[in-house]
Design brief:
With 249 residues, the protein is an alpha/beta fold. The protein has helices at residues 20-30, 44-53, 78-84, 94-99, 104-116, 129-134, 137-148, 177-195, 197-201, 212-219, 236-244, and strands spanning 6-10, 37-41, 58-61, 88-91, 120-125, 159-163, 203-207, 226-229. It has a single domain (6-228), classed as TIM Barrel. The protein starts with 5 loop residues before the first strand and ends in a 5-residue tail after the last helix. Bound molecules: 2-phosphoglycolic acid (PGA).
Amino acid sequence: MARRYLVAGNWKMHGLASDLGEVAAIASGAERRPDVDVALCLPATLIERAARALPAFAIGGQDVHAEDKGAHTGDIGAAMLSDAGASLTIVGHSERRADHGESDEGVQAKAAAALASGLDVILCVGESLEVRKSGQAIPEVERQLLASLPEFEGNPSRLSVAYEPIWAIGTGLVPSLEDIAAMHGALRQQLVDRFGAAGGDMRILYGGSVKASNAGEILAIDDVDGALVGGASLKSADFLPIVEAAPQS
Ligand code: PGA
């Protein structure tokens, strides 16, 4: 099975009703590349309105609780995300791991809950600058991946991994193409060891300061099957060229 590119935007804590026009522009521009899966992970407050306005476009959440319902003030369960019209969610973003103390085990439980309720998952992993400088990035991210991956037997395209070096997020810094290739190759091997052939069909996205000017060379790397884009996903003029940069499949 050939892996389709997935280019997903992560709007983080950005976006008001006045920005729904950008979501619509992205959805419409994405139609120029029917061979690429495109999604936007929006703040929870915009999910339902965006999904209702654009039923054919993939809208996602940025986090999900591991339980479907309960006494968890401020959290959102997977069934609620689906009910609002989301078809996917990010889990384990480094900003959640840092700001909300999320552990690998917690991320694993969130991923499992989301997949079980029918949401596709983008599971984020990535090393700090300290770990990168120590030369331990690959073993550290492999460890993080194995500790965060849920059990999963469904369609492998439903579970994507996003490699996002923490020091590359929002900084304009990007690892060398060789370092991205080495990390993605290592993560591919871990997925195959864990899931067999299905691990070869799961997508591994790169995230961290992806923009129009570097997307083409990053997406051309073996085992880079897409991108998770923060800042450059907020405007269609910045995001659509990244979608267009995906090699033709
Ligand atoms: P960035 O964020 O593209 O703004 O670096 C990426 C992310 O955090 O997913």
